[in-house]
Write a structure and sequence with these properties.
Layout: H1 35-49, E1 54-57, E2 64-67
Antiparallel strand pairs: 1-2
């Protein structure tokens, strides 16, 4: 039996739990393979820009991203 999986285009808006994967513009954030990589990138951002970011595991791509904590502003 053949079963085809349809691939969904990523043009739809992400749901809440995958929002961390996307930038505000709707693109994908930079991915890191390990938490260590993400953390060092966050540290660099702190050093260069004074922006405090945190690393988190993405539920969408199962890799690591860095960003601000999600808040409903
Ligand atoms: Zn992701």
């Amino acid at each position: 039996m053949k079963q085809r999986r349809r691939r969904r285009a990523l043009s739809t808006r992400p749901l809440g739990n995958v929002a961390g994967h996307f930038t505000k513009d709707g693109g994908s954030k930079k991915r890191y393979r390990t938490q260590a990589e993400a953390r060092s990138a966050a540290q660099l951002s702190w050093t260069l820009n004074g922006v405090d970011l945190e690393s988190y595991r993405c539920e969408h791509c199962h890799m690591w991203h860095i960003g601000k904590r999600f808040r409903e502003d």
